[in-house]
Amino acid sequence: MIINQSKNCIISKREIYCKSIFSQARGLMFRKKRTLMIEFPVERKVSLHMFFVFYPIDVFFLNKNKEVIEIKRNFKPFTVYHSKNKAQYIIEMPELNQEVKVGDKLALKHSISVKRNNTTVTIDNSDN
Protein backbone atom coordinates (compact mmCIF):
# COMPACT_ATOMS: atom_id res chain seq x y z
CA MET A 1 0.00 0.00 0.00
CA ILE A 2 1.26 3.47 -0.84
CA ILE A 3 -0.10 6.41 1.14
CA ASN A 4 0.37 10.08 0.37
CA GLN A 5 0.94 11.39 3.90
CA SER A 6 0.96 15.01 2.69
CA LYS A 7 -2.61 14.69 1.38
CA ASN A 8 -3.73 11.87 3.70
CA CYS A 9 -4.90 9.59 0.89
CA ILE A 10 -4.14 6.14 -0.47
CA ILE A 11 -2.66 6.22 -3.97
CA SER A 12 -2.22 2.44 -4.37
CA LYS A 13 -3.67 -0.49 -2.45
CA ARG A 14 -1.64 -3.21 -4.16
CA GLU A 15 1.72 -3.14 -5.91
CA ILE A 16 4.58 -5.31 -7.07
CA TYR A 17 7.61 -4.79 -4.80
CA CYS A 18 10.98 -5.01 -6.60
CA LYS A 19 14.14 -5.12 -4.54
CA SER A 20 16.25 -7.67 -6.43
CA ILE A 21 18.16 -6.78 -9.57
CA PHE A 22 16.14 -9.36 -11.53
CA SER A 23 12.72 -8.06 -10.52
CA GLN A 24 13.89 -4.49 -11.18
CA ALA A 25 15.16 -5.46 -14.65
CA ARG A 26 11.81 -7.04 -15.55
CA GLY A 27 9.74 -4.22 -14.10
CA LEU A 28 6.42 -3.93 -15.91
CA MET A 29 7.56 -5.67 -19.12
CA PHE A 30 4.87 -7.98 -20.47
CA ARG A 31 2.64 -7.36 -17.43
CA LYS A 32 -0.92 -6.16 -17.19
CA LYS A 33 -1.51 -2.76 -15.63
CA ARG A 34 -0.10 -2.80 -12.11
CA THR A 35 1.67 -0.45 -9.74
CA LEU A 36 5.36 -1.19 -9.26
CA MET A 37 7.56 -0.09 -6.35
CA ILE A 38 11.36 -0.28 -6.72
CA GLU A 39 13.82 0.14 -3.87
CA PHE A 40 17.56 0.71 -4.30
CA PRO A 41 20.14 0.32 -1.48
CA VAL A 42 21.21 3.99 -1.86
CA GLU A 43 20.08 7.07 -3.76
CA ARG A 44 21.21 7.15 -7.39
CA LYS A 45 20.31 8.55 -10.79
CA VAL A 46 18.12 6.10 -12.65
CA SER A 47 17.58 5.26 -16.32
CA LEU A 48 14.23 3.69 -17.23
CA HIS A 49 12.86 2.21 -20.42
CA MET A 50 9.36 1.31 -21.51
CA PHE A 51 10.26 -1.52 -23.89
CA PHE A 52 7.48 -4.13 -23.92
CA VAL A 53 5.27 -2.10 -21.61
CA PHE A 54 2.19 -1.40 -23.70
CA TYR A 55 0.51 1.43 -21.76
CA PRO A 56 1.65 4.85 -20.45
CA ILE A 57 2.56 5.26 -16.78
CA ASP A 58 3.42 7.96 -14.27
CA VAL A 59 6.77 7.56 -12.49
CA PHE A 60 7.49 9.07 -9.07
CA PHE A 61 11.08 9.37 -7.86
CA LEU A 62 11.52 9.48 -4.07
CA ASN A 63 14.57 10.33 -1.98
CA LYS A 64 15.72 8.33 1.07
CA ASN A 65 13.10 10.16 3.19
CA LYS A 66 10.35 9.02 0.79
CA GLU A 67 9.68 12.55 -0.43
CA VAL A 68 8.73 12.96 -4.10
CA ILE A 69 11.64 14.76 -5.77
CA GLU A 70 10.77 14.24 -9.44
CA ILE A 71 7.81 13.10 -11.54
CA LYS A 72 7.71 11.77 -15.09
CA ARG A 73 4.09 11.93 -16.25
CA ASN A 74 2.67 9.99 -19.18
CA PHE A 75 5.83 7.92 -19.78
CA LYS A 76 4.95 6.35 -23.12
CA PRO A 77 5.65 2.82 -24.39
CA PHE A 78 8.96 2.19 -26.18
CA THR A 79 10.67 5.33 -24.86
CA VAL A 80 13.50 5.96 -22.37
CA TYR A 81 13.95 8.43 -19.50
CA HIS A 82 16.93 9.46 -17.35
CA SER A 83 16.17 10.95 -13.94
CA LYS A 84 17.49 14.41 -13.21
CA ASN A 85 17.81 13.71 -9.48
CA LYS A 86 19.09 10.84 -7.35
CA ALA A 87 16.34 8.58 -6.02
CA GLN A 88 16.22 5.61 -3.66
CA TYR A 89 12.62 4.61 -4.43
CA ILE A 90 10.66 4.60 -7.68
CA ILE A 91 6.93 4.13 -8.04
CA GLU A 92 5.47 3.35 -11.46
CA MET A 93 1.69 3.65 -11.80
CA PRO A 94 -0.44 2.87 -14.87
CA GLU A 95 -3.16 5.30 -13.98
CA LEU A 96 -2.30 8.94 -14.47
CA ASN A 97 -2.31 9.95 -10.82
CA GLN A 98 -2.81 13.63 -10.09
CA GLU A 99 -2.86 13.03 -6.31
CA VAL A 100 0.95 13.15 -6.14
CA LYS A 101 3.05 16.32 -6.45
CA VAL A 102 6.75 17.09 -6.00
CA GLY A 103 7.40 17.62 -2.28
CA ASP A 104 4.75 15.15 -1.09
CA LYS A 105 5.84 12.58 1.52
CA LEU A 106 4.75 9.00 0.90
CA ALA A 107 4.52 5.98 3.20
CA LEU A 108 5.38 2.65 1.60
CA LYS A 109 3.77 -0.35 3.25
CA HIS A 110 4.24 -3.78 1.77
CA SER A 111 3.68 -7.32 2.91
CA ILE A 112 4.83 -10.67 1.62
CA SER A 113 2.58 -13.72 1.80
CA VAL A 114 4.18 -17.15 1.86
CA LYS A 115 2.12 -20.34 1.68
CA ARG A 116 3.53 -23.48 3.31
CA ASN A 117 1.76 -26.65 4.36
CA ASN A 118 -1.69 -25.15 3.68
CA THR A 119 -0.88 -22.17 5.96
CA THR A 120 -0.38 -18.62 4.71
CA VAL A 121 2.04 -16.46 6.65
CA THR A 122 2.05 -12.72 5.97
CA ILE A 123 5.11 -10.64 6.81
CA ASP A 124 4.25 -6.97 7.04
CA ASN A 125 6.95 -4.36 6.42
CA SER A 126 5.30 -1.09 7.31
CA ASP A 127 7.34 2.06 7.44
CA ASN A 128 6.10 5.54 8.20
Explained architecture:
The chain has a single domain (2-126), classed as Protein of unknown function DUF192 (Jelly Rolls), CATH 2.60.120. It has one helix at 21-26, and strands spanning 2-4, 9-12, 15-18, 35-44, 47-49, 57-62, 68-75, 80-82, 87-93, 106-116, 119-126. With 128 residues, the chain is mainly beta. The protein is built from one helix and eleven strands; from the N terminus they run βββαββββββββ. The strands form three sheets. Strands 3-4-9-6-7 form a five-stranded mixed sheet. Strands 2-1-10-11 form a four-stranded antiparallel sheet, with no helix packed on it.
The CATH class assignment is Mainly Beta
Question: Uncertain spans, ≥5 residues at pLDDT below 50?
Answer: 120-124
Q: What is the molecular shape? A: globular
Mean pLDDT: 82
Rg estimate, integer Å: 15 Å
**N-to-C SSE string, H for helix and E for strand:** EEEHEEEEEEEE
Spatial strand arrangement across the major sheet: 3-4-9-6-7
The major β-sheet equals:
5 strands, mixed
Between the first and last Cα atoms, what is the distance in angstroms? 12 Å
Provide the helix percentage.
Answer: under 10%
**DSSP summary: helix tally:** 1
Class by helix and strand content?
Answer: mainly beta
**Binned strand content:** over 45%
